[in-house]
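To illustrate this point, what follows is a protein record of this kind.

___
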Amino acid sequence: MFIPFEFVPLVLGKDLNARQAFEILVPAIEAANLTLTCDPLVKFLMVASTTPTTQVDPLLLREQAGLAGHLITTAVMKHRHETMLYKQVPGVEPTNAASTSDPAIRQIADGLDHLVAGMRTEREDRAVRLAAADEPKSVHSVFGDRIADRLLLLTEAMHDDDLPECYLDLANHPKKLSERVVLQEAIDRTAVELGTLRFAATPSQALVMRNWSFIGD
C-alpha cells in the first residue's frame, strides 16, 4: 500500500500493527490536507484494523508497538534509511545546511576532524611502539655490529640466538636492572646446571661486561 514519502519516517522500522499505524498516520494526513490523496491508505488501515485474526496473541490487542523481544538496532535502522528510504525517496533525507553554510561552524568542525585524526594516528603509533617493545631485541640491534660480531666469533656461534643466554639477557634487561644483577643471574643459572658452587659477581666484573673489555679491539 502506497504511503506518501513525507509520512514514511512516522512508521518506518516501528513494526506497527494496522490500528497503531492508523492512529499515527490519520492525524498527520489530515494536518497535511492530504485526505483525498491518502483515502485508499486510510480505508486499507480501517479494514485491516477490523479484520479478525486467528493469532493467540493478536497484534491489535498489544499495548506496545512492535514484536515482543524484537529489537531493531541502530545499525539496522541506519542501513534501512541510507540504502532504502533515502535512495527511493530523496526528499525525506535530512540536510545539514546550517553547519556547512556557516564558515565559523565549518572551521570548528574541520578543526575537530583534524584533532580526531591526529589522536587516532598517535594511538596507532603508540600501539606500534608497544608492540615493538614487547619483541625480544637482538644483540646486534642493541650493542652494534662490532661487538656482536666479536661475540659470535669468540663463542663460535652463527646467529645472535645461538649466543650464551647471558648476552641475550644483557640485550633485553630492563633499565632498572644493572649489569651486575644480570651477570649474577647467569652465574647462578650456570652453577645449577653444572652442579658447582656459585660465587658472587663483583662490581669490577660487571664493569668489564659493561665496557666489553674482554672481547678485545
Q: What stands out?
A: The CA atoms of residues 207 and 213 lie 8 Å apart.
